[in-house]
Amino acid sequence: LRQCRIKNLATVTIDGYRTASRYFLDFAGSDLMCGDITQDLINEYCLHLQSVYKPQTVNSYMFKVSPTILFGIEQGYIPHNIQFTHVVEQESIKEIYSEEELNILLQRPKNPDFCDFRAWVIINTFLATGIRASELRALRVRDVNLDAGYITLNQTKNREARFIPIPTTLHMILEEWLQVRNAAGDDFLFCTIFGEQLQRTVLQSL
């Protein structure tokens, strides 16, 4: 975890590593010694996950525990070479929103309170830009440049800032939101009723 912080990894990434390591120790035993981590143990863990979870979830757990194992090998704590297998997933056609469902999502709420209006603006922002949830939560008021027609993303997954154009329909919505928000440039664009950063759980419940 200290090495992750030195690398300046995102908090959500570090939390994912911590959770994956806890699941691995639940399987292998909390008294597991580094020298006991072998290819056979990793393979058994993968098979165990496959008996419980779908391939996508299995790959997620294996991917998130691999940095910890590989760090142990690099430091000499684990004397074995470990290979991580990617479980092949069955491709399927993902269900998408119907036109009727999209119309419901994009319909402006009648006599909205702050939370309803905020949810409507957020949904429109997601659909118009395709940005990640973490990127949206990190947006500040100053990141929206209506005059130039773009949004600046300063906190991204790959640490590379980028610009996102603002479509005409979203431009009008954001213009109204900024008037309602009535905040300083350093304030979060989307916030709680107390002006604090929007939490992941709140965003997921919209």
Determine the fraction of residues in helical runs and give it as a percent range: 40-55%
User: So what's the overall shape?
Assistant: elongated
Count of DSSP H/I helices = 9
Which regions contain 5 or more consecutive residues with pLDDT less than 50? none
What is the residue-averaged pLDDT? 90
User: Helix and strand succession?
Assistant: HHHHHHHEEEHH
Structural class: mainly alpha
Radius of gyration: 22 Å
Beta-strand content estimate: under 5%
Q: In angstroms, what separates the terminal alpha carbons?
A: 32 Å
Q: Sheet with the most strands?
A: 3 strands, antiparallel
Strand order across the largest sheet: 1-2-3
Secondary structure tally: strands: 3
Describe this structure in words.
- The structure is a single chain.
- This protein is mainly alpha-helical and 206 residues long.
- It contains nine helices and three strands; from the N terminus they run αααααααβββαα.
- It has helices spanning 2-6, 11-28, 39-52, 55-75, 99-106, 114-129, 133-138, 168-181, 200-204; strands at 144-145, 150-153, 162-165.
- The protein has a three-stranded antiparallel beta sheet with strand order 1-2-3.
- α2 (11-28) crosses α4 (55-75).
- The radius of gyration is 22 Å and the shape is elongated.
- The two termini are 32 Å apart.
- The model has no long low-confidence stretch (mean pLDDT 90).
